[in-house]
């Protein structure tokens, strides 16, 4: 099982659960996730639904594994509040540039908090939870398992928080690009490269230079000044990562725990090192 809560938003999400879920049910929910009892989960608007396989318990007359329907619904942020949030975030280049690169800024909660908003639920009152199991306590262990699954998914795709709060990824990016600063940044990302011109030679061709007649041959070949004793090491060439960063830390084809951007940066460093060794 992939460990949930690897990112700051995943950890914050789990910390919120501990404030209103009974510890014993929380522990049982983690076991439900580790034993792969949660299936057919999907996001429907601002809700997450899933089927959870229960336990066989002959003491209560349960001889076959029951299937329970679970649902966690997030309170959506009003449209007017989203309009104000988009204007606020769209005026800050640091947040805007990272979001356009499909990266979640570590301080994204700060500009939202200035408007009295929060992506993460701030309490049980912002969640509507239902489970078809006979447990009278809510949230039950089946809902706790679904919460853990959702925390793991948020680690891979933090933009799911926006969707659960009423704003899809496509709409978020589109509205950010429509802001004045976002329009300028977006146009720079899709700018057409300049026209390529063919080179006449793979290497620089030497140009003949006649020696001055007033210089003696010995002085010409030895030179009037001595060459410097040491040569500074060249600076390593920077590898542009615009295309790599455009997909974010967890692009759709990337199912590993570590960041795709960090893996590719390490790969490029190895390629540069190998190329330097060969030269």
From TrEMBL:
InterPro entries: Znf_SWIM. Residues 116-151 form the SWIM-type domain. Pfam families: SWIM. Keywords: Metal-binding, Zinc, Zinc-finger. This is SWIM-type domain-containing protein. Coiled coil: none annotated. PANTHER family: SLR1429 PROTEIN (PTHR38133). The lineage of its organism: Bacteria, Pseudomonadati, Pseudomonadota, Gammaproteobacteria, Methylococcales.
């Amino acid at each position: 099982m992939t460990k949930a809560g690897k990112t700051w938003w995943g950890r914050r999400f789990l910390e919120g659960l501990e404030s209103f879920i009974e510890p014993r049910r929380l522990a049982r929910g983690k076991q439900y996730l580790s034993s792969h009892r949660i299936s057919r989960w999907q996001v429907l608007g601002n809700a997450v639904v899933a089927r959870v396989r229960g336990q066989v318990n002959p003491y209560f007359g349960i001889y076959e594994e029951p299937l329970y329907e679970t649902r966690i619904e997030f309170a959506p942020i009003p449209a007017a509040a989203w309009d104000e949030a988009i204007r606020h975030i769209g005026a800050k280049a640091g947040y805007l540039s990272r979001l356009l690169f499909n990266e979640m800024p570590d301080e994204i909660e700060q500009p939202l908090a200035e408007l009295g908003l929060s992506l993460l639920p701030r309490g049980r009152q912002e969640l509507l939870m239902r489970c078809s199991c006979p447990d009278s306590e809510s949230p039950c262990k089946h809902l706790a398992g679904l919460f853990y699954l959702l925390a793991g998914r948020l680690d891979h795709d933090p933009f799911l928080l926006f969707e659960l709060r009423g704003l899809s990824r496509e709409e978020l990016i589109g509205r950010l690009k429509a802001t004045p600063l976002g329009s300028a940044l977006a146009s720079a990302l899709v700018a057409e490269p300049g026209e390529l011109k063919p080179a006449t030679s793979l290497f620089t061709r030497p140009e003949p230079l006649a020696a001055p007649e007033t210089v003696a041959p010995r002085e010409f070949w030895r030179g009037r000044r001595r060459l410097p004793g040491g040569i500074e090491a060249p600076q390593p060439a920077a590898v542009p990562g615009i295309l790599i960063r455009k997909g974010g830390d967890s692009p759709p084809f990337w199912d590993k725990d570590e960041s795709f951007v960090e893996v590719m940066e390490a790969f490029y460093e190895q390629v540069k090192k190998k190329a330097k060794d060969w030269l």
